Amino acid sequence: MDGIHLVRERREQGNQLLGFSSRPFVLCGLPIRRPPPGQILYERRNGHFTLQVTGHPEFGLPFGQDRLVPIFLATLAVRQQSQTIRFRSAAEMLDSFGMAKGGKEYRRLVSAFERIFGATIFFGTESMKATARVVHRSRFNFMREARIWYNRDPDQSVLGEQFENVIVLSDEFYGEIAAHPIPTDMEAVKLLVAAPLSSISSCGSLTAALPH
């Protein structure tokens, strides 16, 4: 409750720490819980919008806190104004979302990147005009290329320059972020990270983190 009060207070004062999200995952979120074994297709509808996610046969569907990875990628892409984004260490992402650093957390982060990297996204909209039905479809992956280093020593958060992380976003994902960057309240996202799955489910998606 204290955290929620702080988020609302900062919104009213216009003193928010903003990140960015992408339109498909604000309108239709990723699965909250781990999908059943063998399930690699997830679909969500919201009015005229449809989101389908196909997971990698080896890594599976992204779910739960994996949704933080697209927010992190979109935020860096907007801040750096580049399709190729760079950051010094995996700990930077954990810090961004107020997550603990340690071997378990790093392994979880690597697994999240594998699921996000292997996922194919289908996003579509339908609308009716005065004389015709308009259908728009797009299919994309998040990343074209990724080189991620993580430090096995949790007490050393920054690795040397030779270990710089470099991610090249796909043309489609970067184009979506550049055209429709959705401001996201990072403090609110941190609250959802720390919340039980039942609490996150009751919010529906991370759209609850958006500033009003």
Biggest pleated sheet? 4 strands, antiparallel
**Order of secondary-structure elements:** HEHEEHEHHEEEEHEHH
Inertia-based shape: globular
Mean pLDDT: 76
What does this 3D model show about the protein?
By secondary structure, the protein is α+β, with helices and mostly antiparallel strands. The protein has one domain. The chain is 37% helix and 25% strand. The protein is built from 8 helices and 9 strands. It has helices spanning 2-13, 23-27, 68-80, 90-96, 103-118, 171-179, 186-194, 197-203, and strands at 18-22, 41-46, 49-54, 84-87, 120-128, 133-141, 143-147, 165-169, 181-185. The strands form 3 sheets. It has a 4-stranded antiparallel beta sheet. A 3-stranded antiparallel beta sheet has the order 4-8-7. The chain starts with a helix and ends in a 9-residue tail after the last helix. Residues 156-160 and 196-212 have low confidence and may be disordered.
List the helices and strands and how they pair.
Layout: H1 2-13, E1 18-22, H2 23-27, E2 41-46, E3 49-54, H3 68-80, E4 84-87, H4 90-96, H5 103-118, E5 120-128, E6 133-141, E7 143-147, E8 165-169, H6 171-179, E9 181-185, H7 186-194, H8 197-203
Antiparallel strand pairs: 1-9, 2-3, 3-5, 4-8, 5-6, 7-8
Q: Descriptors for this entry?
A:
212 residues, alpha+beta, four-stranded antiparallel β-sheet, three-stranded antiparallel β-sheet, 8 helices, 9 strands, 37% helix
